[in-house]
Every structure is written in C-alpha cells, then in structure tokens.
Design goal:
Structural class: mainly alpha
Bound molecules: glutathione
Number of helices: 8
Helix content: 55-70%
Largest sheet: 4 strands, mixed
Number of strands: 4
Length: 218
Amino acid sequence: MKLYSVNLSPYAARPRIAIYAKGLDVQIAPPPGGPGSDDYRAINPMGKVPCLVRDDGLCIPESDTIVEYFEDAFPDAAPLRPASAEDKAKARVLARLADLYVMAPMSKLFGQLNPAQRDQAVVDALLEEVEKGLDGLNVFLSDDGYAAGAGFSTADVQIAPPLFYLPLVAMAFGRDLLGDRPRLKAYAERLKQHPAVARAYGEMGEALNRYQTTGEVV
Ligand SMILES: N[C@@H](CCC(=O)N[C@@H](CS)C(=O)NCC(=O)O)C(=O)O
C-alpha cells in the first residue's frame, strides 16, 4: 500500500498522522511529477495529494476518506474512532468544522501571502470565515484531553494540520487567531505533544523551511 504525499500539504499530513498513530505499514512516496502533473493524474485522476493506492490498484483520494478507510480496514490497530455514538458524532462535527470552515478558507489565504499581490478585501473575507470556523472549534472542543474526549481520534487527525499553519497565517496577516479562544489555544498546546502529531509537525516544518528558502515543494 502506498500513500502519495508531500510534507508541505496540510491535507497529506492527515493520513500520515493516522499511519503514525496506528503504526500502519504504508509506503509514503512523493507523487511522480508532483501534484497536478499528467504523470500523477494517471494514478489519481484528481491530481491532488494525498492519495492511497492499494497493492491491488484501488485508488482512494481525499484525506478524510483515507483516514476513515484506515479505521475500517485496520480497526484493531490503535482505533481512532471514539466508542460511543455521542463521541463519534462529536468527532465528526469537529472534523467537518476543521475541514470546511478552517482548512478550506485557510487554503485560499495561502494564495494571498505575498503582500505585493494581495487583495485585502479577499483576505478580510477569508479571515472572517477562518475566525468563524475557529469559534466553532472553540465551542465544540473538549475541555481537556483530545478534541472529542480522552482518546486521540480522527477529529485530532483532521484538526492538527490547519492548527500547524495557523501561526503562519496569523503572522502573515497580523491577526491574533488564538488569543480570544482559550479552549482552542490550550488544546493546540496539548495536541502538538502527541507523538504522531509531533512527527508530522516536524516534517511540515522542514518542508515549509525548504519552500521558503528554495521554493521547492517536498
Ligand atoms: N479535499 C482534498 C484536498 C487536497 C488538496 O487540495 N491537496 C493540494 C495540496 S495541499 C493539492 O494536491 N493540490 C494540487 C492540485 O490541486 O493540482 C483532501 O482532503 O485530500
């Protein structure tokens, strides 16, 4: 089984965090020709990372679907789905909030990082969306432990990558995005201590450095 991934991608970090947390035997490789290339589209028609390809050729794109697939295919390897129906619902709500209302507008902000090419009206609208998403996380997050309760779950896997990029976005656009959200701020501190998250954050940090110094996407 092979995961096509680049370390700079917050989406690709999700299945890597799940792989590390569950201890799965998955080969991790860069997409041939890079994300969006014709060579890679021959493998994953969407052209995006991440994408999981099983040894029988089955191709599974989309970060959340890959993480859910791991839970279905390897339920005994450090399960990441909470046990009760209530906690499962909570984990799914948090995962959707992180994906739809934080990660999606944040991805669009990456295109506005260069002040010389910035459209301030677009930036303001996107930051407002991100702030609403963060407010949602701040309300629904558990007070202690991990996102959906005591155990590390699929919700943490989904939330960790956008939280990695939050300080960069806050600095680039001059907004304190965690300050008024004490529950989210405390959770972000706890989350980065988890070994699987710490490993992915290390990889993302190195990739970000490389991108900022050479422009290379790794
Ligand atoms: N909804 C997708 C988003 C994946 C995505 O947008 N990946 C970006 C990298 S962060 C990508 O591969 N972009 C290349 C392209 O769109 O051609 C997921 O959750 O996996």
